Amino acid sequence: MKKNQEEHLEEYLAEHSFLRETAELHLAMEKMVHSLVRPLRFPGEEEVKERLSKGVPLLQQEDLQKKALEAIARHLPKLLGEAGNLPAAPMPLKASAKAMQACIEALPKEDLLDFLGMVIRQEGKEARAFMEVQQLNAALARSLIWQIAERLVPAKWKSSDFWEHEAGWERNYCPVCGRRPLLAQLRKEMEGRSRYLFCGGCGTMWRYARMGCAYCGNEDLNKMHILEPEGASVMRLDVCDKCHAYLKTYGEEGEEEIYLRDWATVHLDLLGEEKGLLKKGSPMLE
Beta-carbon neighbour count of residue 49 at 10 Å? Predict the structure, then answer.
């Protein structure tokens, strides 16, 4: 009998028991967000292609961004309250969630929308300053805001099919939200394998050049190398010696529900950190 996604994940966690508490928290947060947030209505295909003709991602366009910010503002207080009661959440996170809920509910709506806009537009310095003044848990705030944003994007627009075959999007940032990629996947095709980038902000995938750095654009393969961690045969780190960033890359197909989750390979981030490399694309980072 073919194993389902839950069975694959359970086997993975049995082999990587140090990830279990992290997995329970992330999965509980994901379930919570999906139960309370519904996707927005996006424009049709032809309009989307026209909107993207100048290279501006959908959620960075004023009207769509406004709709997304309004939706995030509606859902954020409720979700913070729910996060404060999650059995899987550690006590410090529960306390941070409750404190943030009180702060968010006390903010004038205009101030809240301004802050959410800073996060979605990736204005790191401004968002950090706001969170410091309001004494918000930055990791929780960024994580939850982007989880809501991810849920607001209809599943159709997360698939690589439209971006590859209809829109022809081949840039190194997400066509939906504009974030740089967090992960990558190599897929088998007639001529070999193609690379697809995965957005850690909204969950969108799109095709990108097979070779070169997805961050700085370096195409000199003499300034690129691969790290293949022991015991992680399906995952590797594609490293750029020019910008010193790495991209965690899944080299197989069929277990995307595991390997395209950033937390599931956090041990590879530790390897990157040991090598003095930079992680990019994570919503947890500025």
Answer: 15
CB 81 within 8 A of CB 61: no
Q: Which CATH class is domain 155-279?
A: alpha beta
Please tell me the number of Cα atoms within 13 Å of 19 on its side-chain side: 20
CB proximity list for 91: less than 8 A, separation 6 or greater:
none
From the number of C-beta atoms within 10 Å of its C-beta (0-12, 13-18, 19+), residue 190 rates as exposed
pTM comes to: 0.94
Strand, coil or helix: 135? coil
Task: Count how many residues are written for the chain.
Answer: 286
What is the domain partition of the chain in residue ranges? 19-152, 155-279
Angle at 22 between CA 4 and CA 236, to 5 degrees: 70
User: Of 52, 33, 5, 16, which Cα lies nearest the Cα of 177?
Assistant: 52
pLDDT tens across 127-152, in order?
A: 999 999 999 999 999 999 999 999 99
pLDDT at 3: 63
The identity of residue 186, as a single letter, is L
Beta-ladder partners of 185: 196, 250
C-beta of residue 244 within 8 angstroms of C-beta of residue 277: yes
